[in-house]
Specification:
alpha/beta, Aminopeptidase, 8-stranded mixed beta sheet, 5-stranded mixed beta sheet, 14 helices
């Protein structure tokens, strides 16, 4: 799958739309006048069963919410948007790939204190469980496309294929963010391109401030200097511009955070709550454009998060380590250990046991190596490679399985038996981040490694400490060669005031 950046005219609208849609849902039920609207919303909101592998946060406890904005030319039911609507969105041509181009981890404390929205740059180069390393915004579409192909081969109807493959994509993105940040995701909210446009119109626009006038044709941004109210297509242009800005994507993220803070302030503290027409507009937007995880108690969340206005919501961005160019295109380098430390500092959240690094920096082994037998299938044509791989794995405590030479597969992959994804992902990570695949032909307590020409023996991690050291050294080396230095730290953006930005 081609993960190169899209042409400028087709860039996704990168506004932090998910937070806006979620906050609009909150205010509907945070007051008595919103109860009728809540009943309307709860009967029409779209849900997806994406929170797996554990229980959700109990009411009255800290909550971590993954907020995702997707570049989709469909509504929440998967129906294509009309040409007239697309023209209003100034969305450009369909790229054929549904990217999650806005990714935010929202931490809401149990005691009603300050909530923190942590932006994750869409080009962050990270480990995607089962798919190797790539940009984080590719996790959703990669898993979606893989699931879609598998479901169509089984003969599923198109509506079911679309629904279930999107669920697979969302779940993959959740796993990727959990692995990067070290925290458990309790809830999920997704909003599409249409939702952002409709929401800004429904609340009558928001006030922003620019240090200088700007006119940039790729995004359509054309604004005067100083404070001004924007909505609709202008709002999309404001949050998507990255060219002719001092720090490109990072300047754009700053804009998005300022804009979101203004939206939160207006929804939660202005006259929106007392206007039936505006409330109904927010309801219609959520029903058409928002997807939440199934089982989320929105009313309970609203009571917990009803004080996000007036500075009780702040926006920050994960630390980065410069940029680089590789097979995935132009990427933003990140150090997972630094990201996890930053997230803990910002939220006070304890690391999730299943994703937290152990001493030395590598992820914990969920399955004892001695319980896993590893078969190796060599398709590279390089004699003796299967034996060399087996020797390295047995040195790490894994059981030596059957070795064989085969015709070359399309890519190096680790196959695991049904119900044993933990073992498969553990071996895949050790092998340097291979793709994983469930395979009913693989015996229980066994994983099977298929080697293609894209595999290098040096990809196998020799031990935890050297792996961590090597990763840090490699990232530092790439950062020193990169064309962009790490983004300097900036003060958090809050939902109180209208700061001027580039």
């Amino acid at each position: 799958m081609d993960q190169r950046p899209a042409p400028p005219a087709q860039m996704a609208r990168r506004g932090l739309r998910a937070v806006m849609a979620l906050l609009s849902t909150v205010v509907l039920v945070a007051t008595g006048i919103g109860w009728r609207y809540y009943q309307d919303l709860s009967g029409g909101i779209n849900t997806s069963d994406v929170i797996t592998g554990g229980t959700q946060a109990a009411p009255g406890t800290d909550m971590n919410i993954l907020l995702v904005g997707v570049d989709s030319r469909t509504d929440a039911q998967g129906r294509p948007l009309s040409k007239q609507v697309l023209a209003q969105l100034r969305s450009g041509a369909e790229e054929g790939v549904l990217n999650s181009d806005t990714i935010i981890l929202l931490h809401v404390p149990a005691n009603g204190g300050k909530a923190t929205a942590i932006s994750i740059p869409r080009d962050s180069y990270v480990d995607i469980p089962g798919y190797g390393k790539n940009k984080i915004n590719s996790a959703y579409p990669q898993a979606l496309m893989a699931a879609s192909e598998k479901l169509r081969n089984r003969g599923g109807d198109e509506a079911a294929v679309d629904r279930d493959s999107r669920t697979a994509g969302r779940s993959e993105l959740i796993k990727t963010v959990e692995k990067l940040t070290g925290v458990k995701i309790d809830h999920f909210a997704e909003v599409n391109l249409l939702g952002f446009f409709q929401l800004t119109n429904a609340i009558g626009g928001v006030e922003v401030c620019l240090k200088e006038a700007v006119k940039e044709f790729r995004s359509g941004a054309n604004f005067k200097a100083g404070r001004q109210v924007i909505s609709g297509g202008d709002a999309l242009a404001f949050v998507r511009q990255r060219y002719n800005l001092p720090q490109s994507d990072f300047s754009r993220i700053r804009r998005q955070q300022v804009f979101l803070a203004a939206v939160a302030h207006k929804i939660l503290s202005a006259g929106t709550l007392t206007s039936p027409s505006k409330l109904q507009g927010l309801i219609d937007t959520a029903k058409a454009s928002v997807v939440l995880d199934s089982g989320w108690d929105i009313l309970g969340f609203a009571r917990q998060a009803s004080n996000l206005a007036g500075g009780n919501l702040q926006f920050v961005t994960i630390p980065t380590a410069g940029s680089d160019s590789n097979s995935a295109g132009d990427v933003v380098l990140v150090e997972p250990d630094e990201v996890r430390r930053f997230v803990r500092e910002q939220t006070g959240a304890a690391p999730d046991a299943s994703t937290a690094p152990r001493p030395g920096g590598a992820s914990s082994e969920k399955v004892p190596p001695g319980d896993i037998t590893v078969d190796v299938r060599n398709g590279t044509g390089r004699g003796g490679l299967a034996g060399q791989v087996a020797t390295k794995l047995t040195a790490r405590g894994y059981q030596r399985g059957k070795l064989d030479n085969i015709e070359e597969p399309s890519t190096s992959t680790v196959h695991y038996p049904p119900g044993h994804s933990d073992a498969g992902e553990q071996v895949a990570e050790l092998m340097g981040g291979m793709r994983t695949e469930e395979d009913s032909k693989v015996p229980a307590d066994t994983v099977r490694v298929y080697l293609a020409s894209d595999f290098s023996l040096s990809s196998i991690r020799s031990d935890d400490s050297s792996s961590s050291s090597s990763t840090r050294s490699s990232a530092s080396s790439r950062a020193s060669r990169s064309s962009a230095a790490p983004a300097p730290p900036t003060p958090p953006i809050t939902a109180d005031g209208v700061p001027c930005v580039d």
